[in-house]
Amino acid sequence: MKLRKQSGVVLALATLIAIILLGSTADAQAYRVIYDFGQGSSDGWLPVGVPAIAKNGDLYGVTASGGTYNWGTVFKLTAPQAHGGAWTETVLHDFPSDSQEFPESLVIDKDGTLYGTGEGPSTRGFIFRLTPPSSGRGPWTYQALYTFKSSADGDAPQGNLVFDAEGNLYGATELAGDLSCGYSGGCGTVFELKRPTQKGGKWRFSVLYAFMGTPDGAQPFAGVTVDQKGNLYGTTHAGGAFGYGTAYRLTPPAKRGQSWTEAVLYSFDRSGNEGNSPVSPVIFDGSNKLYGTTVAGGDLNCQGGIGCGVVYELSPPVKEGASWTYSALYAFQGGNDGITPTGYMVFDSKGNLYGATQYGGGATEGGTAYQLKRPTRKGGAWTETVLHAFTGSNGDGNLPASGLTWGKWHDLYGVTAEGGSACQAPGCGTAFELRP
């Protein structure tokens, strides 16, 4: 009996130790760098834009520098067969040192074709397509679909392109458009690139709206979001009633040949604890509420009165034509929780939000990936949890400015513009995987 009792104690202790060790391993594997950029002379560095995820979980993106000509690349990260395995990087395209350089973003179509934007010193911006080989092997085919020709088109396309139901592309430019709007360089535009009606036809570019500054907004740093009715939603960094940016909607015309209609849903203000100066896109929940972030405002004790940014909600009016209702869900404090939220946020199935901050997260201030948990009762507070604090040291990334997206194994994926172990400080950037 005594021997059996001791054996039982030993077994219980062994089981407990195993559980602790397994828990520690799970925590250690919750976040990992899946690729270090800059590993060779032809590899890209400075990855930008939220990654595009293929149906099989492969990850696609762009680097704003590096590659054969040092003008940026389009890359593919092939997912491993099993979770925790090694990802394999392939450079699909090197941008040459001509009018196509410095790619900024990438999206993937349902057939696996890639579309993106770029800009450089010799162009106002361009939209490109990268088509996979028909056989599954061999080089991808690059084509410049449109190059921004004049200030009327816009300048410096920002944020990801989006598709509508017919496969047309939409986006925004930070600058140009109306050069007399009161902002240096212009106030920016929203544009459409219409898919050809027959195979091999020409894509048709048109400016849907040029911002005017004080009344409606200026400098839309982020791209647009499309709803089921074909309306476009986005934010401007500046302009509006108070000069600190707007959230806007563009409604397509009821009849062909008419103009799109812009409506300011909300003008951000610096007063009080409100967020201001948004640079991120907006996303919808199931009740048509809009969510986004601002890089400033919130707790004005943070960053010498500038504020560290907020996550906000905009609720649609009950009656048509009434005002949208603004709510600040969380104001960043500037310590371990992060500073300057930017990039794309995503929901999970329970309505919790996930995003990233460019800075903060501790002494190294390399930025954070965070969860914002929905309150359990109406009127309750949202709760922020830091999922990972980036350090930029020991191979970790730094500056996760593009945000997060869901991918294979229901993990979160993103890139950091700096950090990693392949290059000297500040590093060439990383791609990372995060399991909440």
SSE diagram, text form:
Layout: H1 2-29, E1 31-36, E2 44-53, E3 59-66, E4 73-78, E5 88-94, E6 103-108, E7 114-120, E8 123-131, E9 141-147, E10 155-163, E11 169-175, E12 189-194, E13 204-210, E14 225-226, E15 232-236, E16 246-251, E17 261-267, E18 275-276, E19 283-284, E20 290-294, E21 296-297, E22 310-315, E23 325-331, E24 339-347, E25 353-359, E26 368-373, E27 383-389, E28 397-398, E29 405-406, E30 412-416, E31 418-419, E32 430-434
Describe the structure.
The protein is mainly β and 436 residues long. It has a domain at 33-147: Thrombin, subunit H (Beta Barrel), CATH 2.40.10.500. 6% of the residues lie in helices and 42% in strands. It is built from 1 helix and 32 strands. It has one helix spanning 2-29; strands spanning 31-36, 44-53, 59-66, 73-78, 88-94, 103-108, 114-120, 123-131, 141-147, 155-163, 169-175, 189-194, 204-210, 225-226, 232-236, 246-251, 261-267, 275-276, 283-284, 290-294, 296-297, 310-315, 325-331, 339-347, 353-359, 368-373, 383-389, 397-398, 405-406, 412-416, 418-419, 430-434. The longest helix has 28 residues, at 2-29. The relative contact order is 0.11.
Provide a concise account of the structure shown.
The chain has 436 residues and is mainly beta. It is built from one helix and 32 strands.
